[in-house]
Design goal:
alpha/beta, 2 domains, seven-stranded parallel β-sheet
């Protein structure tokens, strides 16, 4: 693992750059200071850039958020979300979504991921073919969601989740996210299918669009559990941003490698980055 002063130290080693959103480009409220400049410089060198986000929503909604933050050069790149990939698997009737059925029951925020498709929303669990979990932004009634999931378990209803993040960033706060509910359902015995990093489907989706080899691709993220573990799973190199979801773990008194080894979860695998940097610069 190599510690970097700047992303520019290794930019000539790669032709495709995959950037996570939260904790890398912005904090949920504001763009980080160097993000626009870095995107501008990479684009001027004809590098391929994809924003690859564990957002359970469509990329179009993420574009709107970035516009509100003042993004310009970032919006010249393609944004791909785990919501996009989940939608693709459902509408193409493939992978874990093959023959799953047409009636879904929303868990958490009722985000219209399947609007204008052949799928139908139901408010009756007994009529549901699957649960759809896309977002918990602004959601607080986890107790009721747990009750609904326990009923769904008895009905043997599978869960489709379009965002595996267990933790999220809003400004300076770190809080539980959508993946936390998905893990609850899995722990109580429910069939659970999750799209997004660290799963490889989103990486496969992006590589197919890039038409590049794996050794040309760099993943830049702040989560050892999602971005970095996903890059490890897919077989591409990765750069960890320390000033993100794990920022409270890092200290000048402890080496980066020892800190990374100390960051563990009973529910997730800790990835190992090839490079590490304090913040995007």
């Amino acid at each position: 693992m190599k510690c970097l002063e700047s992303l520019y130290d290794i930019k000539n080693e790669f032709n495709v750059f995959l950037f996570d959103q939260w904790g890398v480009i912005h904090n949920g409220e504001n763009l980080y200071p160097n993000a626009e400049r870095i995107f501008k410089d990479l684009l001027e060198e004809n590098k391929l850039i994809f924003v690859v986000s564990n957002s359970g929503k469509k990329s179009s909604d993420n574009i709107g958020r970035l516009q509100q933050m003042g993004a310009k050069h970032i919006l010249k790149t393609e944004i791909i979300t785990s919501g996009d990939v989940c939608l693709n698997y459902l509408t193409e009737n493939k992978g874990p979504c093959k023959d799953i059925g047409k009636n879904y029951y929303p868990i958490g925020i009722d985000y219209p991921l399947l609007k204008d498709t052949n799928f139908n929303k139901t408010t009756n669990l007994e009529h549901a073919d699957f649960l759809l979990l896309t977002s918990t932004a602004g959601f607080h009634d986890f107790e009721n969601a747990h009750k609904e999931m326990k009923i769904a378990l008895k009905l043997n209803i599978p869960l489709i989740c379009s965002n595996p993040d267990i933790l999220g960033i809003s400004g300076k706060d770190i809080h539980p996210s959508t993946g936390d509910l998905a893990i609850f359902y899995k722990k109580i015995g429910g069939k659970t299918y999750v799209f997004g990093k660290p799963g490889i489907e989103i990486y496969e989706y992006v590589q197919a669009k890039s038409l590049k080899n794996k050794d040309e691709i760099l993943m830049i993220g702040d989560s050892l559990f999602n971005d970095i573990a996903g890059a490890n799973n897919f077989g591409i190199k990765s750069l960890l941003i320390k000033n993100g979801i794990h920022k409270k773990n890092f200290s000048e008194k402890i080496s980066d490698i020892d800190t990374i080894h100390s960051i563990k979860s009973d529910l997730q695998v800790t990835g190992m980055p090839d490079f590490v940097i304090d913040e995007l610069k």
